[in-house]
Write a structure and sequence with these properties.
The chain has 2 domains: about 5-145 and about 330-370, 2-Layer Sandwich (Nucleotidyltransferase, domain 5); about 150-320, Nucleotidyltransferase, domain 5. Helices cover about 40% and strands about 20% of the residues. The protein is built from 14 helices and 12 strands. The chain has helices at about 45-55, 60-85, 120-125, 135-140, 150-155, 195-205, 215, 220-230, 230-235, 250-260, 265-285, 305-315, 335-345, 355-360, and strands at about 5-10, 20-25, 30-40, 90-105, 110-115, 130, 165-170, 170-180, 185-190, 295-300, 320-325, 370. Strands 1, 2, 3, 4, 5, 6 and 12 form a 7-stranded mixed beta sheet that branches. It is globular. The protein starts with a strand and ends in a 7-residue tail after the last strand. Bound molecules: adenosine-5'-triphosphate and magnesium ion. Adenosine-5'-triphosphate binds near residues 172, 208 and 210.
């Protein structure tokens, strides 16, 4: 019997380490995770990534080496996950590796999205066919190259009677609308955790606001909130995507400088948390039809920020909010599961993008396949 497991790997825009999942096309949702592992970056690589991505510093040689080193970490993550699950590589039909985004520039001319994490090293170390570079084909076809998890959201979470908005709160937040009998739609709402992470890191050195406890101790400053909400990205029509290269600490500092009477303190964190909740709630409420049964399914690391979730629920009023985990796909595993799912699409010569979402000229087979097997003869 051919191997029916697919291994998904991603490190998201928060650079909080590689999420690795082993999946199979079974279970109530048609796609289930049977093992999961968070594989942190070694400190030296995490520092180099921060220099390159946040400070935009890096010589060509450094970038080349970082690509190779990140590829090794991804291979380590895949092998460690297999060991954890008590499996050998021959149980896995393919790996889908998203890599680590260095820069996402869908509005540049020409547009590009740059992921590192050399997939040849993953194929070499594991011996498993490895699918990678998922975003490039969609962009070559005129798309944003993102968000790509929408296709998995549709495959797993569409309901015959209820409209569902699937919201991923990663570094950036994105929404997928699943309406009975309607085409899938979706786009990036704007920042997810990225600004909250950047501010707490700047002030306290903590990588994120655990449980949102710090934000809960501050007061929302409405003048600043209005300034943040005036950003033109938020008013753009889809297709649209963005990244932390735009919604950065610099973006925040520029706006703080225009608002008088505000300290560099916890009130900014509270305001950023409210801002993030507000843009996600807007994305839901803008398109919610009053007559339709509707629910919101949240995933991504942001579900652990209790203050963010409290503010989101408050803004959503009577729209029920649940985590994807309640349906069987835990919040922090959805993105990695999507790239495992996309690897199968590619091997089966099926489309991975949703052109209505990305704006590409049509459905496309995403990525390239690097054979894992040794040559015959
Ligand atoms: N206990 C927690 N309390 C508050 N926030 C948390 C907690 N755990 C995780 N987070 C937030 O979740 C973030 C990581 O989320 P996730 O892994 O979904 O994002 P990502 O790696 O950037 O993915 P994406 O590619 O979707 O942007 C952290 O940076 C942090 O902000
Ligand atoms: Mg992550």
């Amino acid at each position: 019997m051919p191997a029916e497991l697919y291994l998904g790997l991603i490190s998201g825009t928060s650079r909080d380490g590689v999420e690795a999942v082993l999946t199979r096309p079974e279970g109530p949702l048609g796609w289930e995770v049977i093992a999961h592992r968070r594989h942190p970056y070694p400190a030296a690589i995490a520092e180099r990534l921060a220099e390159v991505i946040v400070a935009e510093q890096g010589r060509l040689q450094d970038l080349g080496q970082l690509d190779a080193s990140v590829g090794e970490v991804f291979a380590d993550a895949a092998l460690a996950l297999l060991r954890q699950a008590g499996l050998t590589p021959d149980a896995v039909r393919a790996i889908g590796s998203h890599g680590q985004t260095l820069y996402h520039a869908p509005a540049a001319a020409p547009a590009f999205s740059w992921q590192i994490g050399d997939p040849f090293r993953i194929a070499e170390r594991t011996g498993i066919d490895t699918v990678a570079l998922f975003r490039q084909r969609d962009m070559a076809a005129g798309g944003e190259g993102a968000p790509l998890a929408c296709a998995l959201h549709a495959a797993c979470f569409a309901h015959p009677d209820i409209s569902r908005a699937v919201v991923n709160i990663g570094g950036i937040s994105n929404i997928t609308w699943l309406r009975p009998g309607q085409p899938v739609s979706g786009y990036d709402c704007g920042p997810g955790n990225t600004l909250m992470d950047a501010w707490i890191r700047e002030l306290t050195g903590q990588p994120f606001d655990a449980d949102g406890a710090w934000a809960a101790a501050g007061k929302v400053r409405y003048g600043l909130l209005d300034t943040l909400r005036a950003d033109p990205f938020l008013a753009l029509d889809p297709p649209k995507t963005t990244g932390p290269e735009y919604f950065s600490l610099r973006w925040l500092e520029d706006r703080l400088a225009t608002v008088g009477d505000i300290g560099r303190d916890v009130d900014v964190q509270a305001t950023l948390t409210e801002f993030t909740a507000s843009i996600i709630a807007d994305a839901v409420l803008r398109e919610r039809r009053p007559d339709e049964p509707c629910e919101v399914l949240v995933c991504g690391g942001g579900v652990h920020n209790l203050e963010l979730m409290r503010r989101l629920r408050e803004r959503l009023g009577d729209v029920p909010v649940a985590q994807t985990g309640s349906l069987g796909l835990p919040a922090e595993q959805v993105e990695a599961a999507a790239f495992a799912w996309l690897a199968r699409q590619t091997l089966e010569h099926r489309a991975g993008n949703v052109p209505e979402v990305t704006g590409a000229a049509g459905p496309r087979i995403l990525g390239c396949v690097i054979p894992g097997a040794a040559p015959q003869g």
